[in-house]
Amino acid sequence: DKVIETHRTGYHFQPPKHWINDPNGPMYFNGLYHLFYQYNPKGSVWGNIVWAHSVSKDLINWEALEPAIEASKPFDIKGCWSGSATILPGNKPFIQYTGIDKDERQLQDFAVPKNLSDPYLREWVKPDQGNPFIDPDPSVNASAFRDPTTAWFVNGEWHTVVGSKKDMLGIAYLYTSKDFKKWVKAKEPLHSVQGTGMWECPDFYPVSQTGDRGLDTSAVDKSVKHVFKVSLDLTRFEYYTIGVYDTDKEKYIPDEGSVDSWAGIRYDYGNFYASKSFFDYKKHRRILWGWANESDGKTRDVNKGWAGIQLIPRKVWLDPNGKQLLQWPVEELETLRSARPVTLSSKVLKQGQNIEVEGITAAQADVEVSFSFQSLDKAEPFDPKWADLPAQDVCHEKGSTVPGGVGPFGLLTLASEKLEELTPVMFRVFKKGDNHVVLFCSDATSSTLTKDDEKSSNLTRDEMMYKPSFAGYVDVDLSKTKKIALRSLIDHSVVESFAEGGKTVISSRVYPTLAVGPKAHLFLFNNGTEEVTVDKLTAWDMAKPVMNVPLEKAS
Ligand code: DQQ
Fold first, then answer.
1. What are the structural domains of the chain?
2. Is 221 a known active-site residue?
3. Statement: residue 1 has pLDDT above 90
4. Contact assessment for residue 82 and residue 22, using Cβ atoms and an 8 Å cutoff
5. What is the value of pTM for the model shown?
């Protein structure tokens, strides 16, 4: 079990080795945060899936326990797939997950703690009585029926949703129960959309219309809005809508303008999948966890002995504009910041200028920066042909080295000294009619000198490194402020970037060969004709937390 450390992260969630995917059943219970996740105990590719289990007091330092749920029963003998936790009345945690039976049918199973007085909830049991709690009826596609959500209580009944499809129709089947034992399928799904294919890992929760406090999943009344999210198996990205939960009709209805399907809004325009949120009773916030897969070829994943990370948990709440969510790394992350950050202020960046941010560990840092400029007059016109293309295509055409008007400007992260390797995180402003659009990019195109072995004739997609020009638009009116803010969490092979207080977020996985460890650099840059001022930059080295040390050793 050799593990190559080069691109392992310093402060992101990772076990010591092997493959991980979806975060499962996150919850806060009796003073501890629990994170379960899909894990292959035997290697660094997907397979042999169990629910690995870690606990934390602060969402940043993690101790590893034995896997909580492993294949052992007829109802999960071929795998224990994703699911959620619900805290039932009487303070009783309850896990709902998808078990795969011998015929590869997907069943909804449950597990409960063996001993509620164990503060770590180390052992979980899967009672024979009551399992599975949902068996797909003949009208359901049993090979596409998975990932039950955290249950919520309304109209005197518990409710849960299971993701599915019928041909290309994405479906969120709704099930209800009076006693959390016997579950009945509702006549109609909670929601379904034609043309989207399989809905993996659905998530459904209320958000407050005033302020950033999170709500319990059952806090359903007229004053709240609802968020519905799915992970699209076909495209491997997620989208969400904001809407209304009609509890009489048991239907979710997205708001007008909240687009369901490909063109919808995303939590993250980069590498972020199978996310799940939970209500944190301790701090009254809703927290979102997402998984970032490797972007490298499978053979290299196998050779390095590990694959997959969980991104930093984010607080999530409704933007005051009511049209989207805002996301921000949990405040506990700041405990890892060095005591003496590097700061810069009122630095002017002329076209073509790069300024190195010196004195930090650029491979493991947290950077906050605010930019301003005088005028939008020089903004380039927005090509009408881009209107129907993903932002990613625009970023691919207009990279950091393509001079512009207002932008591109931003950070060059994980850069080698002479910029042979770099992952620019940048803004570019376009004129569109009387308005402006703000493109935000995290461009992995030049992130590494590693070349795929093109001589190998049968190089499949899986074997190639993926270096996309990830991008999204930022819904902000710059004509008033002429200011924009950026925060990037840089951690060896991941760059997680938050534009304008968390309006648009992009995570990239990258594998530099030169910009590694102490040889990584960070620059500010501007390649637009309009001068840009760095009003303020603060860059912190990030300490290494306790990361999945086995519990006995850690305490
Ligand atoms: N991963 C799990 C499934 C889920 C998928 C299997 C999403 O339950 O649909 O590992 O990444």
1. 19-332 (2.115.10.20), 338-449+461-541 (2.60.120.560)
2. no
3. no
4. yes
5. 0.97
